[in-house]
Amino acid sequence: MIEPHIIPARTGHAVALAAGGRIKVINTHGSQVVDTWALSADDASEYLSMEQTRRMLFKLGPERGDTLYSNRRNEMLVLEDDTAGVPHDTLIAACDEWVYEKYGFPPGHASCQDNFRKALAAVGIVAPATVPNPLNLWMNVPVSDNSRIALAAPLSRPGDHVTFRALMDTVMVFSACPADVLNVNGEDCIPRDVAVALLDEGEGA
Questions:
Q1: Separation in Å, CA 89 to CA 34, 36, 143, 187
Q2: How far apart are CA 158 and CA 29, in angstroms?
Q3: 102 assigned to some structural domain
Q4: pLDDT tens digit sequence for 101-145
Q5: Tally of domains in the chain
Q6: What is the pTM assigned to this prediction?
Q7: Is residue 204 part of a domain?
Q8: Residues 6+ away with beta carbon under 8 Å from 9
Q9: Does residue 205 sit within a domain?
């Protein structure tokens, strides 16, 4: 495993992942949600789509072994390994400046949408005008029988991880979610850092 890159709490990070390449995302402290995106390295208008992934999988969230699809229904990633034990969230949009404004925060509060744009800018990519809905790793969004949803504290534990394998050349973007209003990032509502690491070919997840 290549030395992990630490993503500080409330910030984002983008990394190129060639077809066949694998990347491990580590929930260092166990309570941190990670908003996750992927864009085609050849055409940033093709991106990981939660809507199409739900349509192709016929379920609300991906689990170990599932393929994730682009907005053009192309196979984009495989969730190769996953210690979470429960599906990750595909329903909730990335937090943005407006949600924090509604909660009464002054301008400038970090958000996953801003992290997405800044992370891509740092690697020379212009973000799409509309930020795609992310795959929210470890976000606990219970769905009741009458299709109502809730936001709850993560069930993940320190060291939990997922591993993605790319099925096309991609640029992946990760945001250590800055949410500090509800218990999305744990009962104490404190965002924390996470780590990502590229895996060598043939290395175990």
A1: 10, 11, 10, 18
A2: 4
A3: yes
A4: 999 999 999 999 999 999 999 999 989 889 999 999 999 999 988
A5: 1
A6: 0.95
A7: no
A8: 32, 176, 178, 190, 191, 192, 193
A9: no
